[in-house]
Write a structure and sequence with these properties.
It contains three helices and 35 strands. A hairpin with a 6-residue loop joins β8 (136-143) and β9 (150-155). It has one domain (43-479). The strands form eight sheets. Strands 19, 20, 21, 22, 23, 24, 25 and 26 form an eight-stranded antiparallel sheet that branches. Strands 10, 12, 13, 14 and 16 form a five-stranded antiparallel sheet that branches. Strands 2-7-4-5 form a four-stranded antiparallel sheet, with no helix packed on it. The longest helix has 28 residues, at 2-29. The protein is 7% helix and 47% strand. It has helices at residues 2-29, 220-223, 326-329, and strands at residues 42-45, 48-53, 60-64, 73-79, 103-105, 112-115, 123-129, 136-143, 150-155, 162-168, 174-180, 187-195, 198-200, 207-210, 215-219, 229-238, 242-250, 254-258, 265-273, 280-286, 292-300, 303-305, 312-315, 319-324, 334-351, 359-363, 372-378, 385-392, 397-405, 414-418, 422-427, 437-443, 451-458, 465-470, 477-480. The protein has 492 residues and is mainly β.
């Protein structure tokens, strides 16, 4: 019996030894673990763009797609139907006036620029394929007399669900809101106005519906007649709308379009302030439910610092406030960095010099990390002076500036280096040519954030004409999120 027990324990020991040996061999010979690579978003070229020029009649319209994308593509310009006599939705929702022909552009890298005859409504620019990546369009009007005297330019805007503007109110200027719906579904729109005294709700209602292929023109005085300054939010409950606002200050005081302002944020950069003389008026809105004290820094040619006695501006909850910065930044190219404990919206009015004044507007904008394209940098004839105002508020930056002419070969691009916390103003002048051109600005690898604007001005015997446009992020690339297997997509 004892020998049997000992044999059993010996057999068990042999089994354990053999199992250990097999486990050791398996452990040593096992394959190395495969590292789990987290899927990344893919950068893909934009293949479709729709933009609306809100009121191109009597203006020059410029359209450009930078070179680079391959394959077929085209951009079509077509008129959106005219509204009825009451300024409501277009009766003809088909999209264009009878007998009017579409224009088709199919050459990237070459500026298309035309003077549009008076009459007619908004113009839709619809691009696909190689003409879509980076496509930009703009309208610019020039008047030398009357209440509309001045240069008035605006970037043709893509339809969206939420758009902000900030500037004078209907008590200080004739403020007109242009709405267009190029989509095939109705746009149900709501308006909200923030004045110096707080939120304003119109007795006539604060909403509208724009039919597919239609547009509306609304006097903001009918929504909110009393504000001297205002921030306006245009949002949709359903659908999308292209929104634009024009300010006419009256005889001898100028006219221009308000650029779309960056959405509320706790840090806002207002770029593209030219180095010409004249009044500079800052507008800031705090659309939330908390008061705030906004801290202001100016980014100038010689560095960044707070302006003496103008370091802050107090903005009550749900209201808009203004501050005269003429003695701080007048006559200097600049950008403003505004910081607040609550989200804010900001913009700035630029007033030209002379016996009869003109105005221009800039507003909070995003950094141009993916590059930026300006369709209208100069018209044929060269009467207007075109400038870029570029700022690197936070870190050194390097950009490539490239001009794309309406005729002939494009000149070689120019590299511009920006020191941290500095602004540069660059006059755009193609050698030996007075033809129209567009401009492409592209940050180079390793560059810090860049903000900027393009300014057009013209000297006349009555006084300076001026318009400005903050640089918008180019619609060149789209980040496509990664696709992964997820049972939750199909499970209830």
């Amino acid at each position: 019996m004892r020998r049997l027990i000992e044999n059993r324990f010996g057999l068990l020991a042999l089994v354990l030894i053999a199992s250990g040996a097999l486990f050791g061999v398996a452990f040593v010979s096992r394959p190395a673990p495969v590292a789990q690579v987290r899927p990344q978003a893919v950068r893909a070229p934009v293949e479709s763009v729709t933009a609306v020029c809100p009121a191109p009649a009597g203006s020059r319209v410029s359209v450009i797609t930078p070179p680079g994308a391959g394959g077929p593509g085209s951009a079509t310009l077509s008129a959106i139907a005219a509204p009825d006599a009451k300024g409501t939705d277009a009766k003809d929702s088909g999209g264009k006036d009878p007998g009017e022909k579409d224009a088709v552009i199919d050459r990237p890298g070459l500026l298309w620029q035309r003077e549009i005859a008076s009459g007619g409504g908004p113009l839709m620019v619809d691009a696909t394929g190689s003409m879509a990546a980076g496509l930009e369009s703009a309208q610019t009007a020039r008047e030398t007399s009357g209440a509309q005297r001045g240069l008035a330019g605006v970037r043709c805007v893509e339809p969206g669900a939420d758009t902000w503007f900030i500037g004078p109110g209907p008590a200080a200027a004739e403020m007109t809101l242009y709405l267009a719906n190029p989509d095939s579904a109705p746009a149900d729109i709501t308006f909200m106005v923030y004045s110096g005294e707080g939120p304003v709700l119109s007795e006539r209602g604060n909403g509208a519906v724009v039919k597919p292929g239609g547009h509306r023109v609304i006097r903001l005085r009918d929504l909110a007649p009393s504000p001297l300054i205002m921030a306006l939010r245009v949002s949709t409950r359903s659908g999308r709308v292209a929104a634009a606002v024009k300010a006419v200050l009256g005889e001898g005081r100028g006219a221009d379009w308000l650029p779309v302002a960056a959405a509320p944020a706790t840090r806002v950069v207002v770029p593209g302030i030219p180095g010409t003389a004249g009044k500079r008026e800052l507008y800031v809105a705090a659309p939330g439910e908390r008061d705030t004290v906004v801290r202001i820094k100016a980014v100038l040619e010689d560095g960044s610092y707070a302006l003496k006695n103008k370091e802050t501006i107090e903005v009550p909850a749900g209201s808009t406030a203004s501050l005269d910065l003429s003695t701080g930044i007048g006559g200097q190219p600049a950008a403003l960095v505004l910081e607040s404990d609550v989200p804010i919206v900001a913009g700035l009015k630029i007033t030209g010099t002379g016996a009869r004044q003109d105005v221009a507007f800039t507003a909070g904008a995003d950094s141009i990390d993916l590059g930026s394209v300006v369709a209208d940098a100069q018209a044929t004839g060269g009467k207007q002076v075109s400038r870029l105002v570029l700022s690197a508020p936070f870190a050194p930056a390097t950009v490539e500036v490239r001009l794309l002419p309406a005729k002939g070969e494009a000149p070689a691009p120019v590299e511009v280096k920006l020191a941290a916390a500095h602004t540069q103003e660059i006059r755009l002048t193609p050698r030996g040519s007075k033809d129209a051109f567009s401009v492409v600005v592209r940050p180079l690898p390793g560059s810090g954030q860049v903000y900027g604007g393009r300014v057009l001005d013209e000297a006349t015997k009555d006084g300076q004409l001026v318009t400005a446009q903050p640089l918008a992020v180019g619609r060149i690339w789209a980040l496509v999120p990664p696709a992964v297997d997820a049972p939750g997509v199909v499970l209830p």
